[in-house]
């Protein structure tokens, strides 16, 4: 079988409307759930080795439309990881202090140190997504950001950070059902935000902005993956598999035994 | 049965030499492992409710001599928690920038926001432990820190943070065995640090400093618990039970349904 990293890597030319968000790569639900369980355990081991080696780090960037499952992926895929070596950072509407800096300032401060896994729940990509769709900054500004992002990610990659960028792809109909579920189930009301409904009007603009961002900022040292996410079980399995393949590709090793240490006796 | 929080709460007068680090409160290993498993699942639910409520936070301070199991507790007890609502901060030797501030500066920056669980792997207590034992600061300085810590923790408690401080108690003989294991097992060599052996010379001074810190900074709004930790299975079970009892005591609730929301239909 083709690896998930190969199968889900963003194409050179991105048109999200042409990519099926219900795709499952031939997997069925039962196999998908089993794959996730196996990978969650494997991620525990790989994360341990990353921490023990202490020389490189992993940065996972999660982007998606509302309800596509950023939070769900973090809960289902990352919960088995030792919290000591990982940190999730959620980037929300920038604060006045953050806005008084360049857009990568708050991002840079949150990148994982060597040994760690960092997960970005939203990221610097918002600055070429909502910032573009809602004209928060001028076209001149958001246009130059694509290159600024590429150079920033290249710096991280050259400094020992393996970068994985994941777009969770759902369609507009699936989002409607998920928003409706937050309304219909009283225990989920607290997740409902009226803005989410308003943002739906801009769906097509967002798809265009996402296509551009993914296409312009995909690189072998900072690849974008497009994960079909209409089916939650496939989404979780696919993200776990991308992470396992990526960490396996790093060929992590715990440090060599220390010569002569074995002679020491503690008293 | 007495709750673990009651049974392990630091006494008014603390003398660590008089507290048995092999105590198991009548639990055997099989029951301890089952209790941990049950609590890890329960912590997932309680953490979800804390996050959903979004109005209060939990701060867990872990302190211990080397090898007592701070890392082990984080791995075994916290791994089931959703990493989105929790953050582990490891406080190491202060950097020059940190040293140019008061000792609580870096600590304050890391306290969990509402909705989150924060875990401190070492903490501001190092500033009345190693700082005292190794005379890193004068007696005048470390003496006034006890009150500074009490006031700082009172601020947090009054601002919606529930504080749980845990000392993992092992004896010097148990530490020798664990250090030796890091030497004898080549795959654990990377965890071995020569300083850990040197610190053993100051064991009695550390016990005195710990006794003083726990005694002076124990408060109903920021309690210290002394967890017998010679047996790893008991240590993990006991910490998980203290956290479950504490979170249950907060009577967390997910927010009420939003009136009128049920009438909305997403199109």
Briefly characterize the structure:
The first copy, chain A, is built from 11 helices and 5 strands.
Q: What portion of the residues of chain A fall into strands of 2 or more residues?
A: 5-15%
Largest sheet of chain A: 5 strands, parallel
Structural class by secondary-structure content of chain A: alpha/beta
State the separation between the terminal residues of chain A, measured CA to CA. 55 Å
H/I helix tally of chain A: 11
Provide structural commentary:
Two copies of one chain form a homodimer. Chain A has 267 residues and is of the alpha/beta class. Chain A has eleven helices and five strands; from the N terminus they run ααβαβααβααβαααβα. Chain A has a five-stranded parallel beta sheet, sandwiched between helices. Chain A is globular, with a radius of gyration of 20 Å. The N and C termini of chain A lie far apart (55 Å). The mean pLDDT of chain A is 96. Chains A and B meet through helix 3, strand 2 and helix 8 of A and helix 3, strand 2 and helix 8 of B.
């Amino acid at each position: 079988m083709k690896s998930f990293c190969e199968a889900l890597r963003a194409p050179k030319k991105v048109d999200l409307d042409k990519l099926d968000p219900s795709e499952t790569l031939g997997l069925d639900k039962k196999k998908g759930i089993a794959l996730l369980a196996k990978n969650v355990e494997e991620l525990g081991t790989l994360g341990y080795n990353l921490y023990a080696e202490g020389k490189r780090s992993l940065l996972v960037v999660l982007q998606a439309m509302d309800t596509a499952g950023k939070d769900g992926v973090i809960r289902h895929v990352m919960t088995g990881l030792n919290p000591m070596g990982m940190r999730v950072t959620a980037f929300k509407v920038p604060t006045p202090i953050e806005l008084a800096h360049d857009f990568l300032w708050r991002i840079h401060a949150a990148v994982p140190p060597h040994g760690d896994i960092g997960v970005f729940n939203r990221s610097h990509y918002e600055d070429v997504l909502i910032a573009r769709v809602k004209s928060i900054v001028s076209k001149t500004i958001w246009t130059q950001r694509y290159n600024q992002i590429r150079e920033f990610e290249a710096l991280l990659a050259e400094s020992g950070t393996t970068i994985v960028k994941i777009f969770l792809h759902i369609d507009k109909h699936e989002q409607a059902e998920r928003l409706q579920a937050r309304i219909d189930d009283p225990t989920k009301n607290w997740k409902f935000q009226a803005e989410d409904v308003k943002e739906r009007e801009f769906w097509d603009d967002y798809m265009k902005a996402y296509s551009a961002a993914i296409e312009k900022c995909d690189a072998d040292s900072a690849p974008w993956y497009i994960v079909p996410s209409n089916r939650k079980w496939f989404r979780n399995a696919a993200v776990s598999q991308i992470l396992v393949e990526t960490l396996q590709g790093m060929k992590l090793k715990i440090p060599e035994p220390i010569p002569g240490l074995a002679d020491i006796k503690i008293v």
